Amino acid sequence: MSGRDQILGKLRSKLGRASTTVSENAALNHMQAHQKNLIPARGDLPKAQRVALFKQEAEKVNATVSELSHFGDVPNAVADYLRQHQLPAAIKIAPHPGLKNLRWAEDTSIEVLDGRANGDDPVSVSVALGGVAETGTIVMASGPDTPTSLNFLPLDHIVVVSADDIAGNYEAVWERLRAQADAAGRPGTLPRTVNWITGPSRTADIEQTLLLGAHGPQRLHILIVDGLETTAADA
Length: 235
What we know:
This protein is of the alpha/beta class. It has helices at residues 3-14, 21-33, 47-60, 74-84, 97-100, 104-107, 149-152, 170-183, 229-234; strands spanning 64-68, 90-93, 111-114, 123-127, 130-132, 137-141, 156-162, 166-167, 194-197, 202-203, 211-212, 219-225. The protein folds into 2 domains: 1-33, no CATH class; 45-234, NagB/RpiA/CoA transferase-like (Rossmann fold, 3-Layer(aba) Sandwich). The protein has 9 helices and 12 strands. The strands form 3 sheets. A 6-stranded parallel sheet has the order 1-12-7-4-2-3, sandwiched between helices. A 4-stranded mixed sheet has the order 8-5-6-9. Strands 10-11 form a two-stranded antiparallel sheet. Mean pLDDT is 86; it is low at 229-235.
């Protein structure tokens, strides 16, 4: 018996547990049941009010938000953002079919590259898994079409999210992730990373002075697209 086993055995004896079977099964059952914690009622709203709450909360934490009627409006919205902040007309987009198939060349003069961020891209454009109304949080799931590096390396991060994918609370997003895994024949699996992003990067470690862009993008701009067009593009 190893020293570790001896120590754990003494602890179990003190707790009156003869073996680890009961406690291990209880822990496993708890994880597999996906029991929900207390869920705030403020996000339990109809779609229009849910989107309005999301926008309100995102703007509270220094994100900017625009609402679009169609997914095809994204290139012009990105061009407007670049002009507003006097940024170069060059972006790195996620290699996502929905983004790559947009009319970038026809509708704008933006130089568009796709792929992972390499550290010197000034602006990135990504597609979010969804959003959370109660906190104004964007949810980014990693994958071949959604490289995580685009979320953190560029100084300006533009995120496209479907209004239909803005949930009221965090638990609803986890349920969606599990449902997607089930539908793909991979029950119980999750993406390698799921990033919950609430506003641009910030710190107030030095003299409690708020500094944006300390550990990631200094600006976060969210494009909320209404309708089912986004869902179709994301497929």
